Amino acid sequence: MSDTTAAPDMLSWSCPAPLRDRPRVVMGHGGGGALSAELVEQVVLPGLGGAAPAALTDSAVVELGGARLAFSTDSFVVRPLFFPGGSIGDLAVNGTVNDLAMSGARAAYLSCALILEEGVEIDTVGRVAEALGRAARAAGVRVVTGDTKVVEAGHGDGVYVNTSGVGVVPAGVDLRPQRVVPGDVVLVSGDIGVHGVAVMSRRENLRFEVEVVSDCAPLGGLVEAMLSVTPDLHVLRDPTRGGLAASLNEIAVASGCGVVVRERAVPVPPPVAGACAMLGLDPLYVANEGKLVAFVPREHADAVLAAMRAHPLGSGAAVIGEAVAEHPGTVVARTGLGGTRVVDLPMGEQLPRIC
Amino acid sequence: MKYIDEFQDPELAGRLLDDIRASVTRPWALMEVCGGQTHSIIRHGIDQLLPDEVELIHGPGCPVCVTPLEVIDKALAIASRPEVVFCSFGDMLRVPGTGRDLFQVRGEGGDVRVVYSPLDALRIARENPDREVVFFGIGFETTAPPNAMTVHQARRLGIRNFSLLVSHVRVPPAIEAIMQSPDCRVQGFLAAGHVCSVMGTREYPALAERYGVPIVVTGFEPLDVLEGVRRTVRQLERGEHTVDNAYPRAVRAEGNPAARAMLDDVFEVADRAWRGIGVIPDSGWRLSERYRDYDAEHRFQVGDIATLEPAECRSGEVLQGLLKPHECEAFGTTCTPRTPLGATMVSSEGACAAYYLYRRLELPAAAPAAADREASSVV
Amino acid sequence: MCLAVPGRVLGVEERDGTRMATVDFGGVVKEVCLEYLPDLEVGEYAIVHVGFALQRLDEESARRTLELFENLGMLQEEFGDPWEQAAQTGGDDLAREVRR
Asked: Which pTM was predicted?
């Protein structure tokens, strides 16, 4: 309102662009979207100097002593620490177990490092440890080494957890987005968006009641069931941060294929649809912790789908789309009305919108 | 969800589209005023399904985007103060001011919190009596009543550590400004349904009459948008220009009288700047004299922050349909969805971003409906 | 400007002198302020924006609108233009006229 005499200029309407070049880390850098990828590509990898391209993916497959090992690490910073259906302990075990499973490996050993904030209740640490143990037993993985550090009060959200894990990749299994070819069928193992909505429902200032609990679960068994149909699956991903949209975009870019998703075929449970409608979010971008998306050769699709549905963690599995030769690197959704929209890589964290 | 799913029915959408196709005989340019409608149009691919004759121009109805740079800079200054808890709707955090945004302030140690409702900010104020809690009061007529009620409650409950940074805008003066623009191509308006849920429809007949444009109050689900288009096209084909309500389940002629009374009490009409557009007379609200104590601009003395808008991109011309996105020199070179210069490239529903993405598909934006039928029979 | 969604009132209560409701959005339950629709009752639907009920959702009107859409093609063939008939009675009564 610096100049109230100027006539409104409807012709030069312009609207704000989000900042890209930032001198400091913002939350979006951890959102699993475009900002995360840029931070790794432009800052971390050059610093590491010649790291393998696999450093960009959730788990690496390495040869060691004649064995093919899947190797993965992940840090867990979730607020609140305990949420409907799980806790940071469950996430820390299942997150790494699932990253290994996406390489086709059954997790064998885990490391576990705790970073505790001064002042956090011992009871809380105990409950996190119990959850870690329970989840490890359920996933059939052993925690064999660990570490504990304490940071000053105000320098952490109570408890942070890091886990790393190794597992053996079975012979003949080679899961990489580069193997995706046009015609591959895209399957998802069940309802999407459940974990993200369960956690959001407990966030301060967002609070709502919803009858969903996190889908946090170890996917090793489901992956084994799928690989027993054929070792020739092309790629698996667990769509965590950034949701299905982030996983599909990563696969589209790495494979050089286009991806077409039929929106009506994507299983979105009513409470997730309700929460997304209320907060203005798109379920395709909401996090999952016990779901996977698979690109499977067309000739095996029916059998793999049947094997998934026969497993308790895949009972809601569905075909949601396919890889195509057109629009390489781009994910497209066919809307319920028959229109098309581009499902872009999420930029940063998902925020409730009013517009 | 009930009253959402029914209004997304593909078969009924087909009937509405058939009806539109049957009645349209020549090109018409309609503007959907509200950003929420633009979102729905892109999200469901509605623009691709309409006959070529019907052009939808996306209006400046996104409150986040039209909040002037100067107000964002004031927000950044207030949010940076150590005693302040700065609360905002999520959308506002990504909007850049001069050189930084609220995310950056948070990264620098500012206490910036995303809330769902302004009442959440008031609760934070009650729970933290030693902090100054500021709510970023943006929005159109839909959002103004909740913010007004929150200030009213703060005063009633004697909560002194709460204030509002106000940047409220009103739709009718914007429609007026668009129609007065010399090269205006807009021939009919889809008015914003939820604005009218509050304000009713009384402000519109004078506009329809003065500028000879049909104004159809329109909802947000796909069938609502199609019905708004259908009724607008009908009027245009007949040479009519009246105000019509295509969203009667949520809009009454009188609006919500209680909400309007609260607006009159808490706010007063004032000139407002719109980002990239400039000042539009009487196009917004500020806190009334009775509530001036709750004005964050006064409390934190940021009134002297004055920022001039940089005129970098031509999105204003794109918005009015005067320029196709790819005709802009910056399109696809210095301006992409990754490095956007203006609003129309920032949000995925912006005209430039949509154009960019569809070019990547090597498909004309209007064609994919047919491709869909092939694809869906394959898998 | 306008992300507002329809929700169904599950319960109403007075808190700190403010009328509040629990509202169900397809399985998601949230606290909503009823100060602008104080006579809204349990079981009714309202349009909710940022935690405030702003307008009662008229279920009869919703039903009539859908009925109009369903009859679009057919009525035109059998009885002429439904819109024309309806226009004579005014917007809100549009579908009621069509139904006759």
From this structure: 0.87
